[in-house]
Specification:
alpha+beta; 3 helices; five-stranded antiparallel β-sheet; Thiol Ester Dehydrase, Chain A; two-stranded antiparallel ribbon
Length: about 140
């Protein structure tokens, strides 16, 4: 089941035209990703702080369907899926809440578990595998 993150667009998220800047859309998704990990019980400081594991984004793509403005209320859904024993993808949907709600963007990122010291793929740790499986 997807995780849902609620967020209000802030002035800092927008460009000079008052529209959410494309790179900030990815930041909104990454924020929702972090919240979903925390909600699943992963201690982000411990998870990313002391081990040899890093989980960089290896690919990202986005479809921007409508502009978002300062003050807009958003619902960001996070749906992870395993790709290989060392990688996973996350499908995000950003919905502008209102009457009616309107889908504003679809974003997809791919992540690869990597050894920081060896710069080689690692198997996903059990905590991340459980998060992907929704456990």
């Amino acid at each position: 089941m997807p995780f849902t993150h609620l967020r209000t667009v802030r002035l800092a998220d927008t460009d000079a035209a008052g529209v959410v800047f494309f790179a900030r859309t990815l930041m909104l998704c990454h924020e929702a990703y972090e919240e979903s990990l925390a909600h699943a019980g992963l201690d982000l400081k411990q998870f990313l702080g002391g081990a040899d594991l890093i989980v960089p984004i290896s690919k990202s793509e986005a479809d921007y369907l409508r502009p978002l403005y300062c003050g807009d209320k958003l619902k960001i859904t996070v749906q992870p899926a395993a790709l290989t024993d060392s990688s996973f993808a996350i499908a995000f949907e950003i919905t502008k809440l209102g009457s009616p709600d309107k889908l504003a963007a679809r974003v997809r990122t791919e992540h690869v578990a990597t050894s920081l010291t060896k710069r080689a793929r690692l198997p996903l740790p059990p905590t991340l595998t459980a998060w992907i499986a929704g456990k």
